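User: For a reading group we're discussing how well predicted structures match intuition. Take Rab3 GTPase-activating protein non-catalytic subunit-like. Before you show the prediction, I'll give you the sequence so everyone sees exactly what went in.
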Amino acid sequence: MSCQLNTVASCSCMREVKECLFPDLIDENDVSETDNSDWEDWMKEGREDSRAARRHCSRQKPKPQSWFQDSIISLSPSKDLLVFGYRDTVAFLAAKWDEQESRGISLKFNIVWSGVLALEEKEQITTITCLPLASQKKSSHGSPDWTCVIVGFSSGYVRIYTETGALLLSQLLHEEPVQRLKCRTHEPRRHAGIPEQVEELTILYPKALVVIEGFSLYQALRACRNQVAKAAASGSEFHQLSPLTYKKWGLNDQDVVNDYVSCGLIAVNEFNQLRSTSLLGGHDAAARPSAAAASLYVATGVAPYVGFFYAVDGGGPPMLSDVAMAVASKLRTALRNQVSSAGSRYLGGWLGIGKKSPTDEQQPPPRIEPATQLPISICSDKNSRRARDLYLLKELKSLIKDNITNSDDLQRDIVTKLSVIRTAGIRQQGLERVLTVRYMDHDSLDDILSSMLRQLDSHEIAAGAVEEKILHHYCHLHQQLLRTYRLLCLLSEGATVHTQDSPNNTSESLSALLNAPVSEVEEAMSALSGYRATRTGVRVSFMDKSSMNVTQFLKCFHGNPSSHDNVNMEILPIMLNKEVSVEGQLELGAFLYEQALAGKCSVISLQEALQKSGIQPENLFTLLVNYWLSKEDWNFTATEYLYAILKHLCSMQGQEDAGGFSDWWRIMRTACSRTTNIASALPAALVGRSVSNLVEGALTKPFNSIPPPGEQPKSDSEWLDVSSDNELWSLLLRQLHNLLFLCTVFRSKPHLEERAEPVSLPEILLSVDGVLHSGRGAITELVAKWVAKVGATAKAVSVALRGSMDASLSESQVETRQDSMSMDQDAAEQQTDETLTNQEDSISALLGRTMLRFPHSLAHDMVLANCCWEYVVQWNKDLEAVVYVMQAIEHLKLVRNGILQHGVGAMVWHTFFQEKFKAAAYLIDKVGKAPKDRLCRKELGISDHRSLRDVIGQCCVLLDIIRESQAVKDNYAEPETDVDMEEIPVYGVVEDAWMDCQGPTPLVELAIDQRPTNYDLVSHHHQLATVLHAILVYELKSVRPLSLYDSKGKNALFTDLHTHPVMPYPEVDATVTDQRLQFLSKLISAAVRALPTKAPQDGATVSVPAAYDMMDVDTGVTQSKGDDDDAPPSSRGGRSSKAAATLARLDASQWYGAAMVLTQAWLGVDVDALRRQHVRELYCSGYDRLAEEVLLTVSDHSEMGSQLLRVAGQRLAHAMLQGSSISNYVSHCSTKLISWLSSMDYTSLRVADVPCEDTAILVSHVINQLPETHEEYDLAVELVEVVHS
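Assistant: Thanks. Here is the predicted 3D structure of Rab3 GTPase-activating protein non-catalytic subunit-like, as structure tokens, for the group to look at:
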């Protein structure tokens, strides 16, 4: 079912409402978003007065977040008035139309009045109701004329106000807080069976209900409103008129009344009259000749939950005695009223409203009319005995409630109350209430039950007295439970502990007890020991005494109602209450079995107690299994005790129901499969299989006599009769062994030579049922989670899964590993359990031994693919952890199967990167540079632009992986790594124990089913990713990346990689080409300028620009300089200056290569101009050797020579200014050369102080580049003479 909420009005003055009601929550420095400065001054002054008046009344300051919930709110049905109230203050808000509103919500509420309403000391508002009043004239249009506000107070007063806060009426109707105010409008008579319903106002108090007729209320309010208007016009004081007439009904038969409904007059007929007379007057009541009209009120609360109250309004002619009583009552009331009014000396009468006489200082309390008691309607039999017993039951409950401790007097009173109750069903209700009293002890409850049984046995129970038989059965059953509780308490206290020998915890003894092979028992013991070794400091601890009291114990059980005729049975059958919670069942299981499993009491004594308890064996079995599986670290001694208890429970069930044991074992296997306490489930499964075989007779030969694998039995008699249950037990044991091994691995702390950033994950909890319902890739996913949690690097995981710590394996090692993989799986599993006890095992050792158990699930590529997915999922949860993205890509790189690598890469891109990449591109294009940190957080959810830089860098690597794998798959290129594109990965193959896995599709299967990507489209996205990465790395400015593409190129961006949109032509218009050339020019300049300004020597320091971060060429990961951007290179991450300079040169070369790759896709860009710029920038930075390498690729030698000539001239001009030796030779040069050198601006050189030999080599390159016919050739020749002189 759904609905739609439409906005009909708005309230824009909530801050003012809060200021009126909760002044202490308003911060003086807080400025509201909407300035209501146009409010009138009188309204502000009124709020200031009201704030000062009630500041002393605020004892408990409400929470700022809950002030709206703490307020009392009422909205008029006609939606014209809204009232907020809190404690003694209210705010009236009237609705007005705003014709200038353009958003569609024209009806707005604004404050019209606010102030304090309390007139009595410590008086507070408890309820508010807005009541619209319409004229009764026929010419009325039907809409309300005005709305009054009815307010109930904690003092019992009910006051009525106008919309502007003027007081109309104030009357004290009852001396209790007002709880509810409800109104009912007129309902005409629809047909003859339903009477006409009149208008009325009903007021609910805790123990009374006041009814005011609607017509008289309307007349009084209209008169008071007129008087208020006249008094305001004349300036005189308003005096309240006569008080309202009302009816008051008492609700004393219901303990607590929370709410009510006034049903109005009920239909009157002869049957209803007789029924009402019988209910109200009892069996001997006489019915009057005329039917009396009655009003029905339905009240909800406590004791009873729902009460039906009948108010008889009238009847036939009264008796003469009734008339005399009524006259006497009226006379007495009139005299009391006159005395009260004369003695008060108040002008307002007994209402207490008006001007006080100056002679008196104290006002007597107004007189309150007493409430007329309503007898409550209850279901009763033909006589009044049941009603009497219900009253006695209520007294019994009050007696129990009024006491908090047990005593002999209380016990006697309870027995007395129960004894006088005649109805058996009600007496049983009383017993049920007594048996739930927490402060009653075992002996007291036993005495009470014994007294009830003696009273029941004192007379013979009639054959048709079903309720008495049920009560008798109830008493016997709970007395039997009390005896069981007493026996168990004695066992717990050690009163009946028998001397017994300590079990022998050897594998041979357990094998003999469980009738299992010694090797299987040793394997289980070894696995459990290895698991517990990972839980250092954890020990099994048992409570000295159970905390379950007798009432909790009794609540856990119930009897069979159909067995009440078998009260003469020695032991009554008792069943577990299905309403007991899981925690309650575990607590009960601890009470029953904890001492026996701990060896602190005799198992035989426990068996005797359970045998006499009458509790059904299947319930005891369920409690035992659930309690055992709730604890983790049981020792092997407890396993023997578990076997003994379980075998005894089977003997209690009896051989006649042997076929029902299959349900027992199914329940036990299900519980072992669902629990995450694998260390408890494994021994439980061993015990369950042993007892199952013992009970069902499936075991014909001891396990030790079974021939070994591969050897045939000597005769048919030696074959083992294996039941279906036994096969299921064997399968469950294999699954538990596997998961216990995984739990041991997951809790170990492997030694890592190189650690990646670990993922903060909760403890990995395993269960057989959870793995079976998590799909065929569940084991792989769990191992991937563990790898991410411990922080193992991708290389370490790959090496471990490939069988060696080294990247290359010798042939002997490969053969050894293949031999070990062909070993018998049971022997391999046993070997792994024996060796998996060292906390400092390497990741390779742990994964290697895990592969022996899960050879299919832990295939190399499957684990790496799931690790990649796990890391990127964790990054998606925390975008600040960019390192997870890097680790994910590292794992993806090492996936050897190209089909799987391509599919996982495409899934990662479409699921996690595509939308973020699109948002980053639009953001950078919008600002034209690397966005500031604030924009990154707002638009992308990434903390700063450096984190964004690393994410975009990983996008480049991911797209490159997808593109390369697709190219190899389509035979476009040869694989650069050992990626296998021919073999289709096998998925869906799991170990034999997990063949029944069902659930989500494995990641490998989803990856293989991915559609092939469009190579051109992937390259198109890779180009944009490279551009964005360059902008972020070098913080390029005035670059809009989307302007580097035409309309077709833009439309092709951000589409799914497997689609085939219209791709742009290689050649674009000149505007786009110029934009591309400008961007590539900025990129080359920024890459070169990021190089150190001085080639370092060994141990020397270099000056690295502030905007430079070293980037890993293979991964695209930028290595930040550290937290301090101004730190010297020697302190950045421990790198030497020479290493930093080497990485910087490699980085510049990498970005130059990226620029050249972009020129291959962007046809029309002048590649030679970019090469010339690169050469010039390198020479300007003092990297002459690198420049000479790039110089060989330049085609336009003339232009290149001219540019290098100016660089050489700038160097010589700087040398002349510094007064070096070369300046002496320059003085003998021609005036043309000197003038040309003087015009050179050497400030554009990043490194101007270079060796003279480098300048001479540069000039020689200039001569080689310039043709002899060039106009600057002679100038270059003269420079050669200068530098060589």
